[in-house]
């Protein structure tokens, strides 16, 4: 279960949202993310990486970009602290100015490449297990959503959703596209396949189904295109022949997939 996204305001300068372990494959599969032959071998159209958490499936791909090409990472101070405490990430700081950190804060929107405004959406998630000894400085530092705005288009990106607040509902209602946590169909999805595993909600994911699931909670949100992303391989909606898939489509949602694009 990994989710890698990229975006650009001009089709030339690109930003990544998180960096999954299969980042190399994603770059190879998308010519837009590859170096320009006209500029020589040592160049990249990637102008920055926005990290929404310190989860391993969101950050390990950063290590694949450890060469001497300058790299900018946008993250909360807490996520930066977690990564800098890990000796593997020292590979990103071998020469002066190899790595630049830019702090993400809900109080200070970022202007990315003069085209796109990015605002952090604080979520109530927690740090991953490997960072359990790190004491969070404040709520909303461990897990973020993002609100991207460019040319009048608003996209809300919330791939990990522990709860839906009134603030988040307001953001969804005024967005043109929302990319929403679709990790699990039901709360007991993991435990039904393997005894002793946690419920969806206990690990920070509202399930899609049920009276208090995402489909029901966002049923009154009519304006945006609604897309489920970050879908676990146990989720039955991945099968387009399933009743669960049809229920999602009938409710006005799309199922994100590899190569999904919004132009």
Automatic annotation (TrEMBL):
Keyword Acetylation: no
Keyword Transport set for record: yes
Metallo-beta-lactamase domain segment(s): 13-231
Alphabetically ordered keywords of this record: PQQ biosynthesis, Transport
GO BP of this protein: pyrroloquinoline quinone biosynthetic process
Domain of life: Bacteria
A Pfam family assignment: Lactamase_B_2
Pathway assignment: Cofactor biosynthesis; pyrroloquinoline quinone biosynthesis
InterPro entries found in the cross-reference section: Metallo-B-lactamas, PQQ_synth_PqqB, RibonucZ/Hydroxyglut_hydro
Function: May be involved in the transport of PQQ or its precursor to the periplasm.
Family: Belongs to the PqqB family.
Official protein name in the record: Coenzyme PQQ synthesis protein B
């Amino acid at each position: 279960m990994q989710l890698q996204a990229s975006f650009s305001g001009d089709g030339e300068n690109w930003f990544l949202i998180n960096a999954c372990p299969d980042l190399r494959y994603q770059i190879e599969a998308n010519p837009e993310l590859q170096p320009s032959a006209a500029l020589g071998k040592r160049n990249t159209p990637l102008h920055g990486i926005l990290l929404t958490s310190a989860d391993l499936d969101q950050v390990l791909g950063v290590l694949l970009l450890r060469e001497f090409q300058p790299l900018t990472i946008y993250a909360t101070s807490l996520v930066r602290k977690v990564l800098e405490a890990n000796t593997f990430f020292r590979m990103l700081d071998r020469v002066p100015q190899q790595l630049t950190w830019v702090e993400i804060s809900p109080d200070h929107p970022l202007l990315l490449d003069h085209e796109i405004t990015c605002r952090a959406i604080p979520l109530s998630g927690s740090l991953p297990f490997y960072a359990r000894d790190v004491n969070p400085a404040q709520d909303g530092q461990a897990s973020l959503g993002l609100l991207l705005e460019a040319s009048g288009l608003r996209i809300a990106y919330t791939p990990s959703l522990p709860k839906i607040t009134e603030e988040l509902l307001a953001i969804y209602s005024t967005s043109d596209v929302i990319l929403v946590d679709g990790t699990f169909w039901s709360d007991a999805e993991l435990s039904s396949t393997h005894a002793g595993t946690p419920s969806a909600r206990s690990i920070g994911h509202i399930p899609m189904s049920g009276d208090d699931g995402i489909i029901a909670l966002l049923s009154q949100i009519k304006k945006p295109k609604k897309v489920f992303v970050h879908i676990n391989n146990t989720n039955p909606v991945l099968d387009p022949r399933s009743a669960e898939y049809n229920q999602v489509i009938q409710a006005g949602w799309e199922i994100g997939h590899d190569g999904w694009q919004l132009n």
